[in-house]
Specification:
- There is one protein chain.
- The protein has 121 residues and is α/β, with parallel strands linked by helices.
- Helices cover 36% and strands 21% of the residues.
- β1 (15-21), α1 (29-37) and β2 (40-47) form a beta-alpha-beta unit.
- It is globular.
- Residues 14-121 form the Resolvase/invertase-type recombinase catalytic domain.
- InterPro entries: Recombinase_CS, Resolv_N, Resolvase-like_N_sf, SSR_resolvase.
Length: 121
């Protein structure tokens, strides 16, 4: 059975958030408020340029996530540095049976529609 055909892990209903601002003048509060409103138990936040590969809070967030959890981000541009980076990192989450949700784009890999999208690729 291939990864794409395996059923998703039983969802733990645990939602973990990740937020990022890229300049000192930007404020995290709006992102943090959105993640808390989305039901995130814990939120990790970086104040780093998106082009920087060094995002210690993102690394900590990925280490914190367990099978069945869902990573929630305010928007795709806060999570990935490029489309290729997004595809790779969301794919890695999928292999670990961790869901992914982007609030702004209304993207959710934990829904039947999100699973169907994943199986077509």
């Amino acid at each position: 059975m291939t990864d794409a055909l395996q059923p998703p892990a039983d969802r733990s209903e645990i939602r973990i958030g990740y937020a990022r601002v890229s300049t000192a003048g930007q404020n995290l509060e709006r992102q943090l408020d959105a993640l808390k409103a989305a039901g995130c138990r814990s939120v990790f936040a970086d104040k780093k340029c998106g082009k920087s590969a060094e995002r210690p809070e993102l690394a900590a967030c990925h280490a914190f996530l367990n099978e069945g959890d869902t990573l929630v981000v305010p928007s795709l541009d806060r999570y990935g540095r490029s489309l290729a980076d997004l595809i790779t990192t969301v794919g890695e989450l999928r292999k670990r049976e961790i869901g992914f949700t982007s609030l702004h784009e209304n993207l959710d890999t934990t829904t039947p529609g999100g699973e169907a999208e994943d199986e077509r690729s």
